[in-house]
Design brief:
The chain is an alpha/beta fold and 300 residues long. It has two domains: 215 residues, Rossmann fold, CATH 3.40.50; 66 residues, Alpha-Beta Plaits (2-Layer Sandwich), CATH 3.30.70. The chain is built from eleven helices and 13 strands. The strands form three sheets. The chain has a six-stranded mixed sheet, sandwiched between helices. Strands 11-12-10-13 form a four-stranded antiparallel sheet. A hairpin with a 2-residue loop joins strand 1 and strand 2. The chain is elongated, with a radius of gyration of 24 Å. The structure holds adenosine-5'-triphosphate. The site of adenosine-5'-triphosphate has 12 residues, from strand 2 and helix 1.
């Protein structure tokens, strides 16, 4: 049985349709992404999943429960990450943890949780004195304190530096490996690509595509591209006459070759026949961002 089922969800605010016929399921142990640009309808969708908003139409089940009807039961099993600034400035890390532990019947051991999240030394630090990364880790700790089966993490790494983002991604993988199903809401395509097992690309309130990150990029990945610096002068015809090559362009010192499958093998073999080495060779692949643009016709 899927952990989360969303079927034909529809939600409008007055005349504004925020979510239209959104359907997807999340399996046990997945990191599932709800991915799309600002205003796409991501928050509305997860707030319906959390039971915070009432859908106009559609059916939602989380762990077999109806989020609207069974909200009290669901709260014990679903962890939700707070948005920043939802905690009082003066609250210490330990006080926040104790407060949130009191909401649950079977809370996690706070010492182990703070250790795991790298906050053990910040126990007595007030919320406002925490760094961006520490605040983020605390909000994740609070989402996990009830030992949930499912955790909803919203805009996980907004405002974090690249190092803290990578640490956070590693942390999320660890949490998943411990058996928590994760619903990740993000507008960062790179985050979704690195972290999610599967994702729903949401665009203007609708699911534009539902697949794994590689499944999505493969759909639009009709071309391959190689860039390299030839070790000796290279005549264009050597490569443009290959059936695998569709285009060859040059920058000041690099050759860029576009083509179909087997491009790499065909190009390197042709170069080798003329004793030319492809220095600094790079194979460029389609990113999730490219896939989003191809699938929706818009920049994320
Ligand atoms: N309470 C509300 N009243 C009216 N319109 C709303 C309300 N909440 C959201 N909207 C509108 O519904 C649409 C979807 O909003 P939603 O917050 O679900 O998108 P989002 O993808 O989460 O965006 P963001 O990443 O900016 O949070 C947007 O056009 C938004 O302006």
């Amino acid at each position: 049985m899927p952990v989360i089922e969303v079927d034909q969800l529809h939600k409008r605010y007055g005349a504004k349709v925020a979510v239209e016929e959104v359907s997807f399921t999340v399996d046990d142990g997945e990191i599932f992404g709800i991915v799309g640009p600002n205003g796409a309808g991501k928050t509305t969708t997860v707030e319906c999943i959390e039971g915070l908003r009432r859908p106009d139409r559609g059916r939602i089940r989380v762990l077999g429960l109806n989020p609207e009807r069974d909200r009290a039961q669901l709260r014990q099993r679903l962890g939700v990450q707070l948005q920043e600034a939802e905690l009082p400035d003066k609250l210490t890390v330990a006080e926040a943890i104790d407060l949130y532990r009191s909401f649950y019947r079977h809370p996690a051991d706070h010492t182990a949780l703070l250790e795991a999240l790298g906050l053990a030394d910040q126990r007595k630090t007030r919320y406002r004195k925490l760094s961006g990364g520490q605040k983020q880790r605390l909000s994740i700790a609070l989402a996990l304190i009830g030992r949930p089966e499912v955790a909803v993490l919203d805009e996980l790494t907004t405002g974090l530096d690249p190092h803290a983002r990578r640490d956070t991604w590693a942390l999320i993988r660890t949490i998943r490996d411990q058996g928590v199903t994760i619903l990740l809401v993000t507008h960062f395509m790179d985050e979704a690509e690195r972290l999610c097992d599967r994702l729903a690309l949401i665009h203007s309130g609708r699911v534009a595509a539902l697949d794994s990150p590689t499944g999505l990029t493969d759909r639009v990945n009709t071309e391959q591209r190689l860039r390299f610096r030839p070790s000796a002068p290279l005549a264009d015809q050597l490569l443009t006459t290959l059936p695998e090559v569709t285009r060859l362009t040059r920058t000041a010192d690099e050759v860029i070759v576009t083509g179909t499958t087997n491009l790499l093998g065909a190009v390197t073999a042709a170069l080798a026949r003329d004793n030319i080495v492809a220095e600094r060779l790079r194979v460029e692949r389609t990113s999730l961002e490219d896939a989003f643009v191809a699938l929706t016709g818009q920049q994320p």
